[in-house]
Amino acid sequence: MERPNAWKKYDDAAVAELEQLCGDYRAFISTNKTERECVVAGVAAAREAGYISLEEAAALGRELKAGDKVYATCHNKTLMLVNLGTEPMESGMNILGAHIDSPRLDLKQNPLYEAGDMAYLDTHYYGGVKAYHWVATPLALHGVICKKDGTTVEVCVGEDANDPVFCVSDLLIHLASDQLKKPAAEAVDHENLDVIVGGRPVVIDEQKDDEAKEPVKQYLLDILKEKYDIDEEDFLSAEIEVVPAGAAREMGFDRSMILGYGQDDRVCAYTSLAAQLDVAEVERTSVCLLVDKEEIGSVGASGMTSRFFENTVAEIMALAGEGSALALRRALANSRMLSSDVSAGFDQLYADRFEKKNAAIMGHGLCFNKYTGSRGKGGSNDADAEYMALVRDIMDEAGVDFQTCELGRIGAGGGGTIAYILAEYGMDVIDSGVAVLSMHSLWEVTNKADVYEAYKGYKAFIGRA
After folding, report:
1. Sheet containing 257-260, strands listed edge to edge, beginning at the edge strand earlier in sequence
2. In 366-380, which positions are buried (b, 16+ CB within 10 angstroms) versus exposed (e)?
3. What residues pair up with 403 in beta bridges, in sequence order?
4. SS3 string of 129-179?
5. pLDDT of 221-262, one tens digit each?
6. pTM value?
7. Where is 239: in which H helix or E strand?
């Protein structure tokens, strides 16, 4: 029942393919640190692979047929790619679903203030974070500012070597005796995760009497006006995310691992996208679905609980001549899905949080979680034995290294994915992804072999399931 380390079977050709994939993946997560950036990059890759937008197809009145490839986006934060197969869509689809949002800090609508001759941006944390991770570390700002005139200003500061970076301050050890006595969850107040962005006051002409009341804040506003042509009020319609600054790196003397921000769940999103684009012809229609808001419950217009997925399938089926409501219901119920999300990698330093024979071991291949949830499988999609048997057969036939696992020891905690939402249609769904160390920290760790096996497994699934 124990699965071998995947590295042991690779020849030189496999290692070369693995390194190419992982190099492209590192570049992707280094550049695309928000859901908007992931969608833009995904659309560009899709168009290069011959996909056209669903809006284009509809506007042309084009009848979709086997071999056609279309994509659709939702609020610039969710992306769906569809490769039409030779079988009717009513017979079901093979779906890879991952999320492209990650834990972070978001700027509040009224974020800018001055105190102690420094300028700060006030934040609200997004998703499950440990507040103490975010202090005294280089941070970058990514996002958009939408102005009342309809223009959108893109912001990315802190990634280029010549850019400034930002940080949240920490209390010096010399004065931290009380702080060190607090539980980790209380050591840093989430309300104090305010980002330092300035420390220089504006200089007012001595001939004028109207010296700025908040000179450091004013100096920053002058910079923003010059660089982006925005005023303070424009923060009301901005979406700026605070993320760790810097690129993903190879990790270990042997370079066998990847250290990077946002690998939950962009490691599964990237491998799903790559698999979708690399399988040109399919029998059953294949779908790659990259969604937003998973880290806060999959809510909202761009989350998995919205009607975007269902409505897009309906639009495509109508253009493919399968436009009845019953055909749509049958297509959804007959589909099969891998909910492509990361799993908790076994960590020897915290071994008591795991049950090792049912844990995801780093480097041992693609992970399958029959169920997640917490306590008595609460909130879980629990895949049935028949579907698990099919998945095993697909992976074995394709020579994919895989392992089965649970999300930690019973009672140690828990978590979930988008699996249960798609399962509401009656389709077969199972969680499947890459093992990650330090999940939800600023710098997460994956093993290159697991990334490679995930890509291979996702290709095998959409080609045969």
Report:
1. 249-251, 257-260, 444-447
2. bbbbbbbbbeeeeeb
3. 367
4. CCHHHHECCCEEEEEEEECCCCCEEEEEECCCCCCCCEEECCCCHHHCCCH
5. 999 999 999 999 999 999 999 999 999 999 999 999 999 999
6. 0.95
7. strand 238-244
